[in-house]
C-alpha cells in the first residue's frame, strides 16, 4: 500500500504523461525515485517506477519506459525483494509492454533473471519467469533465445520446447530434424530432468508426419519387464533421443555405451554445441562414468550463454548431420 504522498505524486506524474510531457515526466519519476531511494523507501520506489514504466510504455515511449523498468529491477536487488507472485507480476507486465526491437529489453530480462536467481528458490532463475520470457520469444520466432529460457522453465516450457524444436527444424530445411530435438533432450538430461525431456520429445514427435515413422522395435524398460514396442523414425537422431531418455530410466550403463557408440557418426560439434560433451555429462549424472579430462560442462555452457556469455552465431543455421539408418535397434 503506497503512502498518501506517493499516491499524490503518482497521480501528478501520470497526468504529465497523459498530457504528452514525456521528457519532463521521465525526469521527475527519476528525481522522486532517487529521493525515496536515499530514504530507503524501497516499496515506494518500486511502485513509483513501475507505474512510470507502464505509463511511458503505453505512450510508446519505450526508451524512457525501459529506463524506469531497469530502475525497478535495480531496486529489487538493492532491497533484496523476494521472488513472489506480486514481484513477478510487475516484471511480466513490463515485458508484455516492451516492443520486441527495444534495445533495453534484453538487459531488462538479464537483470530480472539475475535478481530471481539471488532472491528466489532456483539458482537457475525463476522457472515461471523463464517460461514467460521463452514463450514471448518463441511466438516472436526468436527460437535461439527462446530455447535458452524454456530449458530452465516449467512443464509448460518443456512441451513448448518440443514444438519450438520442430518449428525450428522446419525453418532450417537443410538440417535434419533430429539435431534439434537431440540437442534439447540432451541438455534437459544433463540437468537430470527426465520428465521434462519426455515432455519435450513427446511434443516434438506429435508434430512429425506419419511418413517419418518406419516401424517399431522391441524394448525392455527394465530386465524383469516385458518388451514394449517403441516407434522408429527415419531420422537416426530422433531415435537416438528417444532411446537416450529410455536409457536414463534404467540401470543401463552398458546400454548407454552401446547407444553412444552406435550413433556417434550422427553428430559433430556444431555452432557451440558439443554432443560428445553432453553425453559425457549424461554418463556422469546417471551412471557415474567419469568424464575425460579438460572436457567442459553443458550446464555451465547453458548458464554462460543465458546469463552473459556470447550466444552461438547463427545457432542451428549451418549444422550438417548425417547418420546411420535406424533399423533393427533393440535394447534389452
UniProtKB/TrEMBL annotation:
Species annotation: Umbelopsis ramanniana AG
Keyword field: Cytoplasm, Transport
GO CC terms in record: cytosol
Protein family according to the UniProt entry: Belongs to the GET4 family.
Chain segments carrying region Disordered: 310-332
Gene3D superfamilies: Tetratricopeptide repeat domain (1.25.40.10)
Record GO biological process: protein insertion into ER membrane
Name of the protein in question: DUF410-domain-containing protein
The keyword Cytoplasm belongs to this UniProt entry's keyword annotation: yes
Cross-referenced InterPro entries: GET4, TPR-like_helical_dom_sf
Coiled-coil residues: none
Regions of compositional bias (Polar residues) in chain numbering: 323-332
Pfam families (alphabetical): GET4
Cellular localization per UniProt: Cytoplasm, Cytosol
Amino acid at each position: 500500500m503506497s503512502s498518501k504522498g506517493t499516491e499524490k505524486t503518482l497521480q501528478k506524474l501520470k497526468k504529465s504523461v497523459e498530457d504528452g510531457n514525456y521528457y519532463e515526466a521521465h525526469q521527475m519519476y527519476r528525481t522522486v525515485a532517487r529521493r525515496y531511494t536515499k530514504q530507503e523507501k524501497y516499496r515506494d520506489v518500486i511502485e513509483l517506477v513501475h507505474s512510470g514504466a507502464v505509463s511511458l510504455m503505453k505512450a510508446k515511449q519505450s526508451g524512457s519506459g525501459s529506463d524506469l523498468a531497469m530502475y525497478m529491477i535495480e531496486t529489487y536487488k538493492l532491497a533484496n525483494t523476494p521472488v513472489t507472485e506480486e514481484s513477478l507480476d510487475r516484471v511480466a507486465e513490463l515485458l508484455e509492454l516492451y516492443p520486441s526491437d527495444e534495445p533495453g529489453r534484453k538487459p531488462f530480462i538479464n537483470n530480472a533473471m539475475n535478481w530471481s536467481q539471488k532472491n528466489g528458490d532456483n539458482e537457475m532463475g525463476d522457472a515461471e519467469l523463464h517460461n514467460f520470457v521463452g514463450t514471448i520469444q518463441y511466438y516472436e520466432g526468436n527460437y535461439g533465445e527462446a530455447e535458452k529460457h524454456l530449458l530452465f522453465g516449467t512443464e509448460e516450457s518443456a512441451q513448448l520446447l518440443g514444438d519450438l524444436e520442430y518449428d525450428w527444424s522446419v525453418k532450417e530445411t537443410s538440417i535434419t530434424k533430429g539435431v534439434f530435438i537431440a540437442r534439447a533432450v540432451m541438455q534437459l538430461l544433463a540437468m537430470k530432468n527426465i520428465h521434462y525431456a519426455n515432455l519435450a520429445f513427446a511434443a516434438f514427435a506429435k508434430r512429425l508426419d506419419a511418413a517419418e515413422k518406419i516401424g517399431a522395435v522391441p524394448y525392455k524398460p527394465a530386465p524383469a519387464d516385458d518388451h514394449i514396442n517403441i516407434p522408429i523414425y527415419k531420422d537416426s537422431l530422433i531415435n537416438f533421443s528417444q532411446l537416450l531418455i529410455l536409457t536414463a530410466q534404467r540401470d543401463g550403463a552398458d546400454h548407454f555405451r552401446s547407444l553412444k557408440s552406435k550413433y556417434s557418426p550422427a553428430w559433430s560439434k556444431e555452432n557451440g554445441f558439443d554432443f560428445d560433451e553432453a553425453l559425457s555429462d549424461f554418463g556422469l549424472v546417471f551412471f557415474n562414468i567419469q568424464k575425460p579430462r579438460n572436457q567442459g560442462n553443458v550446464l555451465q555452457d547453458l548458464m554462460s550463454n543465458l546469463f552473459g556469455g556470447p550466444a552461438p552465431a547463427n545457432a542451428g543455421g549451418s549444422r550438417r548431420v548425417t547418420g546411420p539408418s535406424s533399423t533393427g535397434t533393440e535394447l534389452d
